TrEMBL record:
UniProt xrefs under Pfam families: ApbA (PF02558), ApbA_C (PF08546)
Protein name stated in the entry: Ketopantoate reductase PanE/ApbA-domain-containing protein
InterPro entries: 6-PGluconate_DH-like_C_sf (IPR008927), 6PGD_dom2 (IPR013328), ApbA (IPR003710), KPA_reductase (IPR013752), KPR-Related (IPR051402), KPR_N (IPR013332), NAD(P)-bd_dom_sf (IPR036291)
Residues of the Ketopantoate reductase N-terminal domain: 12-171
Biological source species: Neurospora hispaniola
PANTHER family: 2-DEHYDROPANTOATE 2-REDUCTASE-RELATED, PROBABLE 2-DEHYDROPANTOATE 2-REDUCTASE
Gene3D superfamilies for the chain: N-(1-d-carboxylethyl)-l-norvaline Dehydrogenase, domain 2, NAD(P)-binding Rossmann-like Domain
């Protein structure tokens, strides 16, 4: 990240202003150390006309709130010479690498080489690798958040779990020099400072061990998230049944724990399994994000949550039979979602493969 005037507000572009993204933008703006330009899609008209309505467990009731600017597309800093370079581009969209276009291509016009820090507040493993290749001169930061925030209807954010966010630096083998790593750490710490300036209601800290924090969250996401999508069941009902926990969730967590140690040298304490199993109370009836996406007919972000841990396990020879079955079932769900999103599908005759036409009618 290039030099930033400490007396000026950080210039932040937020990509993905749904539930989580909007709460990130609100905290940064409320702290007074950043100006946020939020890129909106399906909710653009609702927010442009009425602002956001936020019902927050941390911030209370907020009406008619808008970030510094609202955009309906990614700005180009090279073509719009009047626009100051962004200090940070924060990505809070779902991570779906098997669906085009890729986020690296989407955000590229807003990135100033050697200056803009890219912050991935997204779930999953190895999500940083495409960004290392696409933006070798830029810091790539990890953001992990534990919170619950849903946008429903468009422009209305229901923020129902207290926020804990961890910002750190991905270990970039391409940027091996000490100066590049120190610049990335400085960028992460400055973002944490701007984030926490909004007050004690936000818990945001610098995370020195990104690998540990990502594998730790995978204990939950590679188990509850995928199984919920497959079964169409919230986490409370899974716990009520008991056998789903004992025969699926616990086994998946054990496989993730073994893979973390063998593939990354990450020691996840055994007690974390019970902590994650009981993370959602019996009274919460919480629907993990993948289940919500299945119910809405959307694509699911299963590759980095389940596929990447499975591939890491295969690379180092760790047996993960339960994870492999879950991955296969999720691939089937994604295939069905892709069918629904195509306007022109050629149904095969017996013995033929499925052939897809273009997305438009011929």
């Amino acid at each position: 990240m290039g030099s930033v005037d400490a007396n000026k507000k950080l210039q932040v572009l937020l990509v993905g202003s749904g539930g989580i993204g909007t709460m990130v933008a609100y905290a940064l703006e409320k702290g007074g150390k950043a100006e946020v330009a939020a890129v909106l899609r399906s909710n653009f008209e609702a927010v442009f006309e009425n602002g956001f309505t936020i019902h927050s467990v941390d911030h209370g009731e907020v009406k008619d709130w808008r970030p510094t600017s609202i955009l309906d597309s990614i700005p180009s800093v090279s073509e719009e010479s009047w626009r100051a370079p962004y200090d940070y581009v924060i990505v809070t969209t779902k991570n779906i690498p098997d669906i085009q276009p890729q986020i690296t291509n989407i955000i590229a016009p807003a990135i100033t080489p050697g200056h803009t820090a890219i912050v991935l507040i997204q779930n999953g493993l190895n999500i940083e690798r495409p960004f290392f290749s696409a933006f070798p001169a830029n810091p790539i930061l990890s953001g992990i958040t534990f919170t619950g925030a849903i946008e429903l209807p468009p422009g209305t954010i229901n923020h129902h779990n207290h926020e804990r966010t961890f910002i750190g630096v991905f270990d970039n083998p391409i940027a091996a020099s000490y100066s590049q790593k120190s610049r990335a750490i400085a960028a992460a710490r400055r973002l944490v400072d701007a984030y926490t300036a909004c007050g004690p209601e936000v818990d945001c800290t610098y995370e020195p061990d990104v690998a540990y924090s990502r594998w730790r969250k995978l204990l939950y996401n590679a188990s509850y998230n995928g199984v919920a999508a497959i079964l169409g069941m919230d986490t409370s009902r899974m716990r009520f049944t008991e056998h789903i926990i004992d025969d699926l969730i616990r086994l998946l967590m054990q496989e993730i724990r073994a893979t973390a140690k063998a593939a990354a040298g990450v020691e996840l304490e055994e007690k974390l399994i019970e902590t994650m199993i009981t993370a959602d109370g019996y009274d919460k009836f919480f629907k993990p994000s993948m289940l919500q996406d299945v119910e809405k007919g959307r694509f699911i972000e299963f590759e980095n949550l389940v596929g990447e841990p499975l591939r890491e396990a295969e690379r180092v020879g760790v047996e993960t039979p339960t994870l492999k079955v879950v991955y296969g079932l999720l691939k089937g769900l994604q295939f069905k979602a892709k069918e629904r999103h195509l306007e022109d599908v050629v149904v095969p005759r017996s013995g033929e493969g499925l052939r897809y036409g273009g997305c438009g009618k011929s």
